[in-house]
Amino acid sequence: MAEYRQVDHPEISTKRIRLILLIIAFIFFVIILFRSIEKIDGGEGGVLFRAIGGIDTERTFSEGYTVIAPWNDLIVYQVRQQEVLENMAVLSSNGLEITLEVSAWYQPRFQDLAKLHQEKGVGYLEQVVKPSIRSSARSVIGRYTPEEIYSTKRDAIQSEIFEETKKILDKQYVQLNEILVRDITLPPTIKTAIESKLKQEQEALEYEFKLVKAHKQAEKVRIEAEGKAEANRILNASLSTLILKEKGIEATLELSKSPNTKVVIVGGQDGMPLILGNN
């Protein structure tokens, strides 16, 4: 019985090897490609770290897809506005401890993101932002008394903390948008004393207002009385006996025209006319 043995042609074996190598190369390329594509979401920015050369300080990567070499890294930061809330104990100008609650709205400067990463790193909030807020708040509160802090200077305190914190963060590649003083807590005894003092001052102001109002009313009455007296004086000085008689005669003649008047006698008492009627 004859035996048959299949012999592969050398050319076919070479093609198979090439095909396998191409498949392996393609798979390797796909892996590298997927490892090289990085996505940056909205409100984020990227910093490129090269395995050879370190951080690329000339460019900040914006949102979208970007392709980098697989041996490099892309560090992603939030660049939209963020908020941090700080509770701290500070001292007033007379050494009284006050609890302060402050929130800050901040964001890293997009164009300086690489420098921020190189000098501060991803922990810049704890290393830079919070210490700046605390330092500025302590400095500002130390200029005011508890009465000023509680009653009249809150807006000024908020504005000053913002200005001092901003000066620090501007040098640290962080943009400060707003400082909000949310709460100021004084010791209960001090708060009660201040409220009592403010109440007394308010009552004193109300009493003073009433006195001023009464004084103005009295002054108005006096001026009106003086005006009337002066008018009467002028009127009396201008009236003579003859004028009065003339006015009396005119008035009497007008009355005589009434149908109920019957007799008019001229030459009555003081030379004034008399009217005699039926009654």
Q: Can you tell me about this structure?
A:
The protein has 279 residues and is of the alpha+beta class. The chain has four domains: 13-78, no CATH class; 82-186, 2-Layer Sandwich (Tetrahydropterin Synthase, Chain A); 199-232; 241-277, no CATH class. It contains seven helices and ten strands. It has helices at residues 10-36, 113-119, 124-141, 146-152, 154-170, 188-238, 241-256; strands spanning 37-40, 44-50, 54-55, 64-67, 73-78, 82-91, 97-108, 174-185, 261-265, 274-277. The strands form four sheets. It has a three-stranded antiparallel sheet with strand order 3-2-5. Strands 6-7-8 form a three-stranded antiparallel sheet, with helices on one face. Strands 1-4 form a two-stranded antiparallel ribbon. A hairpin with an 8-residue loop joins β9 (261-265) and β10. α3 packs antiparallel against α5. It is elongated and about 155 Å long. The model has no long low-confidence stretch (mean pLDDT 79).
